[in-house]
Specification:
- 0% of the residues lie in helices and 19% in strands.
- It starts with 26 loop residues before the first strand and ends in a 5-residue tail after the last strand.
- With 80 residues, it is mainly β.
- The protein has one domain.
Length: 80
């Protein structure tokens, strides 16, 4: 057992995460039946908000990538 560092623990003080910008796709393609590819025109951090129409229970799978290879697999710009 080791002694703790002492002092008082405080919560980290930082601003709340907020939406700063909302972007729309610059291009949309359908390379295969049931596969839709949206080009956002830029690389960005953040999260997705997707609105869809259709039958309840249909699975929607979303993958983000910096680039795509010929087989539509995501390829990172930097390894690791």
């Amino acid at each position: 057992v080791v002694e703790g560092p002492g002092g008082v623990m405080d919560a980290q003080v930082m601003p709340a995460i907020k939406v700063r910008q909302t972007i729309q796709p610059v291009a949309e393609t359908q390379p295969e039946e049931g596969v839709y590819l949206f080009d956002m025109g830029q690389n960005f951090p953040g999260w997705w908000r997707i609105r869809t129409e259709g039958d309840t229970g249909v699975r929607l799978r979303v993958k983000a990538a910096e680039t795509l290879n010929d087989s539509l697999f995501p390829t990172p710009l930097q390894p690791g």
